[in-house]
Amino acid sequence: MKGRGYTGKILEVNLSTERITEITLEEEILRKYIGGRGLAAKILWDRLGSRWEEIDPLGPENLLLILTGPLTGFYPGARICVSGKSPQSNGIVGSTVGGEFPVELKCAGYDGIIISGAAKSPVYIFIKDNDVEIRDASHIWGKDGKETIKMLNKEIRSELEKKYRNFGKWKEPGILYIGPGGENKSRMAVVMCKWTHAAGYGGYGAVMGSKNLKAVVVKGTGPLPEVYNPMRMRFLLDEVYRVYIERDGMRRWGTGSGGYAVGYISSSEPVRNWQEEWHDEKSFGVDKFERKVWVKRYWGDYGCPTTCLKIAVVKTGPYAGAITDNPDYELQAYLGTNLGIFTPEENVYISALIDDAGLCGINTGNVLGFAAELYQRGILTKEDLNGIELKWGDAKAFAKLIELIVKRKGIGDILAEGTFRAALKISEMKGVDVMKYAVQAKGIAIGAHGIRSRLDYTTPISYVCSVQGGDHTSVARIPIESHGSEVVRSMLDSAVICIFNYFGKPKLFWDFFEAVTGWHETPESWAAENGLRIIQIQRAALLLGGPDFSWDPKIHDENPPRFYEPLPTGPCAGQAADREEVEKMKKEYYEKVGWDENGIPKSEVLLKLGLKNVDEALNKVRRRYK
Length: 626
Description:
With 626 residues, the chain is of the alpha+beta class. It is 38% helix and 12% strand. The strands form 4 sheets. It has a 6-stranded mixed sheet with strand order 2-1-6-3-4-5. The chain has a 6-stranded mixed sheet with strand order 8-7-12-9-10-11, with helices on both faces. A 3-stranded antiparallel sheet has the order 13-14-15.
């Protein structure tokens, strides 16, 4: 459907046959699934759902979806959603990343890209408006993040300036790409954008690697599509800017203020693989990051009024030259406190290594902490770790282990599979159950927000019932129509926008959505129908899983064992998750979202939502309990 925020076209590229086509979608589908995460769930289920448990996430049959939403280019702070069958959970994860790429794609005339098959050798896709090419990428295969960006920017800009001399200077194109971690199919690999941005959850960098796809590059010169009510949209745009420009704390520090505050104030930050969640390490305060390593403040992605991003550089000492983003809270936590690291310089150094490798800071930080605790307990030895003495706080030791993971060398080959699969393998190797040290949910690392203190936004069932596993941006919550519920958040990932431009005055978003699309929605109406439809498809895919692992709600709708251990330090010492409370809340959540006592979506709910094929597929799961 052209207009109302959509270009009306989706590009489809088959890397096996090199066939490039365009498809259109009916307005009814766009109305029900919107774009981004919702549309990804619909496309994936329609094409792969009948054989979901047979599809290898790292095989050529899997699809890589890169989808905008109707608000892309209009609502401040552009993001794009990357999805497919997840190599981490074997389900569907809608993973979003900020940058100019989605605006370039929409101005090229496309609402998204569906990529299937696998190339015989490394390639990248180049899109210039209606001209689409599959190009050789052998010269950039093996390059890290910085080199990939530099080489592609130089190559594409030089070509455009020669071919379109009258255009003048070309700005850099939008680029999504993978690093060496994705090339080597680590399940923790991400799809990168702008070097330090990443679609982190899901492991979709490994999907790109399995397809021999190094990058997707796009330059669009057309206009954005028309909207339903342009005058209303312009008025609301001014309001959005007014509201979010006033958020001075977020602008000054971003989420980077959390490295100290979430630990000290909320007692919910991972410290040494979640053995603790409280610390009073003032060396890790945001003022230390601001003074020691930040060299640029107040910048953001396309049209963003919040501008919470920073550039951090280590200027002196053994880690001089390391450069990265803030780091934001999640990376401060997982690549800092979680590893026993409490200095900005070392945190920036480890974060920079992760960026260049194209790995997820959360999932990789999780597996690094997991390995360090196994070393602490004598389960993994120096010999197991290729000679590394993996002591807490030793940034150089963790850097060496990251290199092994990227190259899939020795223990790194096991750890590259992510915490859950590594725990299964190491338990088998050592004859010891190490799953109790694995802080994950359905194959995905728990976000850096614990549940034991009850002082963070998370609840006892946040990760237990989430259809995106440990994803801290998509947590289960009651009531399901609340702004923090993943049912409502599925709209933000479908529209597609940044959650930090939603908090503060959410009604602005829903009014803005109507001005662009002409469709009226509220959190309540969304949670009752369209949002619920997306969640049911994601839940079905998660329960079917396969081919290497499927999730049993009786076993896996559960917190990691660590969360039932009392917090050892801080003002919340002694507090832990309560199993009886978790079970009670879980049953209530099941009922609210339309799942039966076994955690399986009910037939009557699915049929009411028009998901007959999902209902039929779930009969395979229901038979397990008969």
